Every structure is written in C-alpha cells, then in structure tokens.
Fold this protein.
Amino acid sequence: MSLRLSTVILPVRRWHEGGRDQWLRAEQLGFHTAYTYDHLSWRAFRDGPWFGAVPTLTAAATATERLRLGTLVTSPNFRHPVTLAKDLISLDDISGGRITLGIGAGGNGFDATALGQEAWSPRERADRFAEFVPLLDRLLTEGSVSHEGTFYSAEEARNIPGCVQRHRLPFAVAATGPRGMRLAARHGQAWVTTGDPKLFEEGTPEQSREALRGQLERLGTAFLEIGRDLEPMEKILLTGFTPEANTVLQSVDAFVDFAGRHRDLGFTEVVIHAPIPDSEFAADEAVFEKIATEALAQLDS
C-alpha cells in the first residue's frame, strides 16, 4: 500500500514575513497536501500571531500550482454551514479544485466561547456536528437549499456554480466515536484521527497502535452498516498527538519506522507539522525537509 505524506502549516507567520515562503516550500518539497488549523486561536499560540484559515488558504492557492490545500480541521464552534459553503466554493474555484475540507465536531478550547456563548457539552457538539455536516453537504451540491433545523437554518441559500471538484470538494471527517464514524461513512471521502488522547502522555507506542487499530475497525463497521466499501476511503493520521510525538521528526529512520507501522495498520496518509521554533512543534528544519524528500522512497524500498 502506498502512503501519502502531507504537512500542517500553522498560520502564525505574517504572509510577507515567511508565511508565503512556507507554502511555496511545501510544494517544492513534494508534499501531497498542506493543511492549516481552522481556529480563532489555539493553545500556547493564543497570545501570539494567528491568522484566519480561509484567507490564508486563499493566498496559498494563488501562490502555489499543484499542492493540495485544506483545513485540519474546521468545526461548528464558530462556523455556520451557509457562510462556510460560500467560502469553500470560492476557495475551490480560486485553487482550481485543490481544496480538501477537514471537518470535526470541535472541542472546548478558546473557539468554544469566543463568540460569547457557553461552551457546548460533548453531547451538544455531537448533535450539532450531526446536523452541520449533512447540511453543508447539501449546500455544496445543490443550487438552492432551504433547511429548518434544531441548530442551523438556511432559506433558499444559493451556491451557484458549485464546486470545481465534482460532485463537491472532499470531506475529511475527524471522528473517533460511533456517531462521528457514521457521519464519516455517509459523507466523507477521508477519515482523520490524531489517535487516542488518553494515551498521549502516559501510553506506549504499542498501546497507541492498538487503539488506532480499534478505531479503524469501528470505521469499518460504520461503512458495513450502510453498505459502503471502506477500501477507497482515505485514512489520515495527524501526527504530534501520540506517544511518539517527540521522536517522529528526529530522523528519517525514526519517521520511516513510524510511518511504516501505521501504513501497515491501514493508514493512507500521514501528516507532519512544519517546524515552529520554541514550541511543541520545534524540530530540525533540515531533518524535516529530508523526511519530505527521502522518506517515502525509503519506505517503499
């Protein structure tokens, strides 16, 4: 099974002070996709620069030619399906059909209360996600959509001419629970996971891989329930949140070992963070670039 290698570029640099160069370099290095986080602010970066995902991806689309672009991940925390659909159709057009939407239920971080609301409970996040994804799917595939839901409504929302990619741009659905897995099975072209968060600090690599194996099995069950073939589904692992987080980018050999073990589990794409000095994503830039240019060939040899 072949494996794709992608990267995440966090939106922490001004466009004309290194931001543009990062996206160009990702294309030059041959990454399959360059993603960015869709947050208003995030964890330790809250008190520093953090730019919007949609404008950043728009700029990246005009600066690059071949590189796929996307979010990991967009959530309902501060998005509405109607306005998001319009942004996505525009992005897909500007990029010439190179956009993937990573989408998840969101969490209880800074985004959860930035609009002045109380943070939603896990149940409400799941309920909103279950309504958000099907409505967004309709908005990206139908010329006019009306919907009166529990959380989201649309009144003759027009999205003409639709996406460049047909029948719409792909969804990469982040999910670990049964409801999210069912959404991924019904609406996703890809599935995204970061592993089991309970194992990040205290678990072992072996325990992490076993947890991921269980997630893949549950995903397969969700596909079986609706009679859909799991095999064409892309399975994406976003690295940096498993017990191996501090070692994956230490050397090409370390990455190849990690990537090979997860390819054997069934993953088709591995995503690594572009280095950010003095952060949890600090890494040797030279090693990062060597992984980008040499690891997949070594993995297949």
